[in-house]
Design brief:
Layout: E1 3-6, E2 9-10, H1 23-32, E3 45-54, E4 62-71, H2 79-85, E5 95-100, H3 104-117, E6 146-151, H4 158-174, E7 178-181, H5 195-213
Parallel strand pairs: 1-4, 2-4, 2-5, 5-6, 6-7
Antiparallel strand pairs: 3-4
Protein name: RAB, member of RAS oncogene family like 3
Keywords: GTP-binding, Nucleotide-binding
Pfam families: Roc (PF08477)
Length: 240
């Protein structure tokens, strides 16, 4: 099989003074298929590598090494810190937006993080609120594959789980992305053959195809054409 190193950005989502979202634990689980025993705050950027079989089980199968960049920081960082983070956004081939399912502010901040990573940091000042008047057209021409992952699913009471997951489904739709919700302390959420594992593999395939095989403007075969962004407001964004 052919192997290639594919740079890939895993996007940061520890914000303000709120408890960590679990992105370091997530990266470790994605790359090592193991639970991270002693997670710590990310300072600067931490890099890990995942081995991914592109189009596994088909004649086109190839092995790629995908770098995951766990970028630390706060959504409210000073401009000098944000400028430093911008170094890690150059030449990214995909973005994983990670949020804490137990904290609404966590997913609200995903919007600002995504604008920063896409070099469109023009969001109005102030606190982002549910159904705030923010223009989704800013994402309409985005060519970078996005995936939304919610962590700490195990910490949501069963009685509230439906309400929370319904809200986050709108969040993923706003980003025109697929969604995975999991508990980073339990590898079974990414077990081979599970719906989450299929979504993850499909996402990495999409990133690889975008990077190596597609000319600009061509649609990726085998991927459903999800609803495009229209006018209106950005729905229910919340995150750490």
């Amino acid at each position: 099989m052919e192997s290639r190193l594919l740079p890939f950005c895993h996007f940061p989502f520890n914000t303000d003074l709120i408890t960590g979202v679990g992105k370091s634990s997530l990266v470790h689980l994605l790359c090592q298929n193991q639970v991270l025993g002693n997670p710590s705050w990310t300072v600067g950027c931490s890099v890990d590598v995942r081995v991914h079989d592109y189009k596994e089980g088909t004649p086109e199968e190839k092995t790629y090494y995908i770098e995951l960049w766990d970028v630390g920081g706060s959504v409210g960082s000073a401009s000098s810190v944000k400028s430093t983070r911008a170094v890690f956004y150059n030449s990214v081939n995909g973005i994983i937006l990670v949020h804490d399912l137990t904290n609404k502010k966590s997913s609200q901040n995903l919007y600002r993080w995504s604008l920063e990573a896409l070099n469109r940091d023009l969001v109005p000042t102030g606190v982002l609120v549910t159904n705030g008047d923010y223009d989704r057209e800013q994402f309409a021409d985005n060519q970078i594959p996005l995936l939304v992952i919610g962590t700490k699913l195990d910490q949501i009471h069963e009685a509230k789980r439906h309400e929370v997951l319904t809200r986050t489904a709108f969040l993923a739709e706003d980003f025109n992305a697929e969604e995975i919700n999991l508990d980073c302390t339990n590898p079974r959420y990414l077990a081979a053959g599970s719906s989450n594992a299929v979504k993850l593999s499909r996402f990495f395939d999409k990133v690889i195809e975008k990077r190596y095989f597609l000319r600009e403007g061509n649609q990726i075969p085998g991927f459903s054409d999800r609803k495009r962004f229209g006018g209106g407001t950005l729905k229910s964004l919340h995150y750490d």
